[in-house]
């Protein structure tokens, strides 16, 4: 019994190309950005470096008017209305000032409770952004950043969703991104 098979040597110059993208996947998603051009899979900048790329308005707003930045981020993604978030921050600040002046224990307790609700909202917003843009991380990480690096976290989220125009310090919200539900 003899076996006679023709042998073709391996040619290194022959190239095989396989497309990993099926026809249903838009080219933008295959390149790591969503249909709005926002980065998928990782944060646009690190937790502290995002504050210093655009000091006006990102750093200024995140550190001195975090409520405005928080409202702009929420409105940009269509998660919450800009006016509702601003109203919450204004009422919380007014209540905390009242608590400091009056030293009323009931008002202080309400202020602490609403501050914890705000902390939870911050964690939830960060978690939601990670979900929308497939950014790895954990709820514990979100808790730590929201609690101890709140302004940096807001700055990072604002940069990622492009909730501001670099060099333009405005207190209004940008348009909700296409593909996200608008609540304004």
TrEMBL record:
Please name one Pfam family that this protein belongs to. Answer: PLAC8
Query: Among its keywords, does the record have tRNA-binding?
Result: no
Q: Do you know which InterPro entries this protein is assigned to?
A: PLAC_motif_containing
Provide the transmembrane region boundaries.
79-100, 106-123
What keywords sit in the KW lines?
Membrane, Transmembrane, Transmembrane helix
* Superkingdom in the source lineage: Eukaryota
Q: Write down the NCBIfam families for this protein, in alphabetical order.
A: A_thal_Cys_rich (TIGR01571)
Name of this chain's protein: Transmembrane protein putative
């Amino acid at each position: 019994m003899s076996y006679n098979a023709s042998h073709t040597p391996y040619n290194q110059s022959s190239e095989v190309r396989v497309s990993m993208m099926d026809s249903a996947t838009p080219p933008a998603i295959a390149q790591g950005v969503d249909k709005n051009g926002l980065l998928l899979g990782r944060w646009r900048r690190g937790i502290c470096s995002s504050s210093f790329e655009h000091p006006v308005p990102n750093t200024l707003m995140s550190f001195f008017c975090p409520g405005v930045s928080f409202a702009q981020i929420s409105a940009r993604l269509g998660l919450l209305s800009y006016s509702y978030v601003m109203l919450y921050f204004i009422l919380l600040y007014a209540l905390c000032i009242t608590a400091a002046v009056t030293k009323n224990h009931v008002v202080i307790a309400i202020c602490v409770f609403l501050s914890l609700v705000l902390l939870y909202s911050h964690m939830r917003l960060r978690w939601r952004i990670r979900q929308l843009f497939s950014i790895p991380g954990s709820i514990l990480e979100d808790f730590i950043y929201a609690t101890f690096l709140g302004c940096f976290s807001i700055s990072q989220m604002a940069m990622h969703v492009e909730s501001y125009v670099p060099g333009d310090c405005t207190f209004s919200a940008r348009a909700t991104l296409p593909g996200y539900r608008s609540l304004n």
